[in-house]
TrEMBL record:
Stored InterPro entries: His_Pase_clade-2, His_PPase_superfam, Histidine_acid_phosphatase
Keyword Hydrolase annotated: yes
Keyword annotations of the record: Hydrolase
Gene it is expressed from: PXYLP1
GO cellular component: Golgi membrane
Example of a GO biological process term: glycosaminoglycan biosynthetic process
Protein name stated in the entry: 2-phosphoxylose phosphatase 1
Family: Belongs to the histidine acid phosphatase family.
Species of origin: Pan paniscus (Pygmy chimpanzee)
GO molecular function, a single term: phosphatase activity
Coiled coil: none
Keyword Cytoplasm: no
Superkingdom of origin: Eukaryota
Amino acid sequence: MLLLELKVHLIPVSTPKNGMSSKSRKRIMPDPVTEPPVTDPVYEALLYCNIPSVAERSMEGHAPHHFKLVSVHVFIRHGDRYPLYVIPKTKRPEIDCTLVANRKPYHPKLEAFVSHMSKGSGASFESPLNSLPLYPNHPLCEMGELTQTGVVQHLQNGQLLRDIYLKKHKLLPNDWSADQLYLETTGKSRTLQSGLALLYGFLPDFDWKKIYFRHQPSALFCSGSCYCPVRNQYLEKEQRRQYLLRLKNSQLEKTYGEMAKIVDVPTKQLRAANPIDSMLCHFCHNVSFPCTRNGCVDMEHFKVIKTHQIEDERERREKKLYLGYSVLGAHPILNQTIGRMQRATEGRKQELFALYSAHDVTLSPVLSALGLSEARFPRFAARLIFELWQDREKPSEHSVRILYNGVDVTFHTSFCQDHHKRSPKPMCPLENLVRFVKRDMFVALGGSGTNYYDACHREEF
């Protein structure tokens, strides 16, 4: 196999996947042991694959003993999936999307998950979710379908959160009810199935009568607040920036030309087919890149395209157009989240655990809007968590913690960057987050708009 040797060297199974780095150049979640001194496209791709290995260290649920956990809000990217595009004129990578107990990666709850899902056809979800399969089940994956790796990633996430939030902090009572969960997903089978896998790992008893997923038509989870002309203008300018960066990269163009010759299509057609998506699938599943009688797509091609992707992310942070898009794209879901937190501070016991099963294009704008510009692009099965805490010694005081893939990033956010210098508490006052979402996040856009509607409709942009 093409990549086996690489993986043996680069994924020691006991390596913790996270840790913080003091160097500002390094992004959130570098590994101090194996982080390469310069950007390494293979290392970055392995992090993106997020192949399940040993249980990872995580900082969720860490707080002084006099703090009580009040509510938890979890945003996930779906797990590992089959590509959305194929490289033209090549054979599709042969990945099996049935769930098999004796195949790696494995999770102790895998068989029980399949058994439970196969009995769940009577579950009622908001339309059109009730027409989706509850678990992947094709011998040759369909386009975009969740894989066994993707299911195991989220069973693992669920188990980890269960150990912390239920066993340790008793977030839900033993006789928990349906209204204590808030579950929402886009209308893709991979997001619904990822959400179900996480819940199956998380809940002490997975009772179908208590599981109700709402359907979210927009990948931004903007519900009734999706119309925002200025957001779309930012996106158009950001896409133009991406296009110009591609044009400047002669090595990338040469690589696309070589690959196009191998598969015998025009370069333009190959580029439009987004080969990185398919190549990442080959890479993550240790399947050889495609060959034709003209030659083989190889590791060097992959490295060039992946390196360009990393450079694009770097320039995206510098140019700030994506930040404008992110602020307006993430505001509705952040506003919904603080509303849920505020209701919890009033002692309401509904929606103590919220789960949004989403996409990279959901998490990425939220990370950017929060000011987490150094965060890595959301890997498969990435998780972003908002914890709400109450100080038992001062019950009227509530604080939040933000965690990304198990790393506490609270003091990397725009709204709480300097707070830890003034306060010994390892978290941020809830009012900081509320003020940020209601008003301060729009400062990044310039102009005079201090609310979502004005920022979305301002004319001077």
